[in-house]
Amino acid sequence: MNILILGSGGREHALAWKIAASPLTTKLYCAPGNAGIAQEATCVALDIADHQAVIAFCKDAKIDFVVVGPEVPLVAGIVDDLEAAGIKVFGPRKAAAQLEGSKGFTKDLCKANNIPTAAYERFTDAAAAKAYIRKQGAPIVVKADGLAAGKGVVVAATVAEAEAAIDMIFDGGLGVMAEVVVEDCLVGEEASFFALCDGDTALPLASAQDHKRAYDGDKGPNTGGMGAYSPAPVMTEAMNKRVMAEIVLPTVAALKKAGTPFKGVLFAGLMITRDGPQLIEYNVRFGDPETQVILLRMMSDILPALIASRDGQLKNFNLRWYDDAALTVVMAAKGYPGSYAKGTIIKGLDKAAQIDGVEIFHAGTRRDGDTIVANGGRVLNVCARGKTVAEAQRRAYEAVDRIDWPEGFCRRDIGWQAIARETTKP
Ligand code: AMP
Ligand code: GLY
């Protein structure tokens, strides 16, 4: 089969690496891709916001199946457009992608279906939102209702901070946002839960946990994710069952009933509280960098699973996993998530990749002649497998230390919660 992946990050590099290994793959393309992805796939300089251009390329290159990485094209309806042109795609249609595109949509769906999530109200008016905030008190969480590239959530420690967030959002600080959700602050441990869905049923993937804060000790500003590991010890077998029964399956059933079935990967951001799992948010695509560690642990061919999701055939499907743990350290350009330089030279990647169990995915790189240069905020995902999270961590940092990139930085403590649990195990 000829396959096209859309996207250009570490998640797409991991998908390309895994799909390239499938015996079903004849030719693999990625648009627009990056310097690392170019080792696995033919990169195509397409503007993926231009759906007609993507359709034209698919026809030209006889693409049999498209895998969409990021949320923006999904929310914009690229699956609807490609399928209407007769091209098969992995991912949700526009109506179902609202689970990520609109926080209000998801909160209302949870309320109507008794899916556990923080108590909330929706507002289109700043004064009413502030009155509610004063009534509820702090801590409290303010969310812009729309795609905000990870910047739309303020966990406010004080009422004043929450009110300032309301002003920032309604004054256009995140672009045009007509609505906010204000919700209770949940307390617990966060985990990411992924399930492939085919409109009818859902098949859970391995669990993972990411580190959202920029600096060691989970301090500093929120980012897209500075590292991740799998499995997540907080996601026990029993907790996985509860998340499927209380959150994922009711969501799939509700969307089916609404006539907008969800196909693709459903990514539930969870808070594991004392009373059980609560949904923080849904994403309608693979997580980045969680996918990098999940795919390192996947023994089965991923391609039949993605196709079964598109075709509504997941029911009797099974995926096999390696027992090994996996961990990834994100190397970012100094300054990220604020402003940073592009074009700095990265050396030592080959030497780093030689370490046993290590796999390096590129998140934001470009080839410049014989050199690889940084081309984004999050630049590299240095991943490793190991018998334990601690062993995977050791290998990943050994690889990080072989990379010669003075303009980059990374956290040195990825996986600390899991490793603390491993060392205190009886
Ligand atoms: P989101 O973009 O919805 O994933 O939110 C970003 C981050 O804000 C989450 O990963 C949580 O750390 C935090 N967060 C969001 N909603 C809540 C909540 N209701 N209670 C506590 N923390 C939250
Ligand atoms: N790692 C979080 C995300 O992909 O949004």
Quick overview:
By secondary structure, this protein is of the alpha+beta class.
Molecular structure report:
By secondary structure, this protein is an alpha+beta fold. The chain folds into 4 domains: 2-91, Rossmann fold (3-Layer(aba) Sandwich); 125-178, Dna Ligase, domain 1 (2-Layer Sandwich), CATH 3.30.1490; 193-311, D-amino Acid Aminotransferase, Chain A, domain 1; 325-424, Alpha-Beta Complex (Glycinamide Ribonucleotide Synthetase, Chain A, domain 4). The chain is built from 14 helices and 24 strands. It has helices at residues 10-20, 51-60, 71-75, 78-84, 94-101, 103-112, 126-136, 159-170, 237-257, 290-297, 302-311, 349-353, 389-402, 416-424; strands at residues 2-7, 27-32, 42-43, 65-68, 89-90, 120-123, 140-144, 153-156, 180-184, 189-198, 202-204, 209-210, 213-215, 219-222, 227-230, 263-273, 276-283, 325-333, 345-346, 358-362, 365-368, 371-374, 378-386, 408-409. Strands 12, 15, 18, 20, 23 and 24 form a 6-stranded antiparallel beta sheet that branches. Strand 7 and strand 8 (153-156) form a beta hairpin. The N and C termini lie far apart (49 Å). The mean pLDDT is 95. Adenosine monophosphate (AMP) binds at residues 118, 141, 153, 155, 183, 185-186, 190, 212, 269, 280-281.
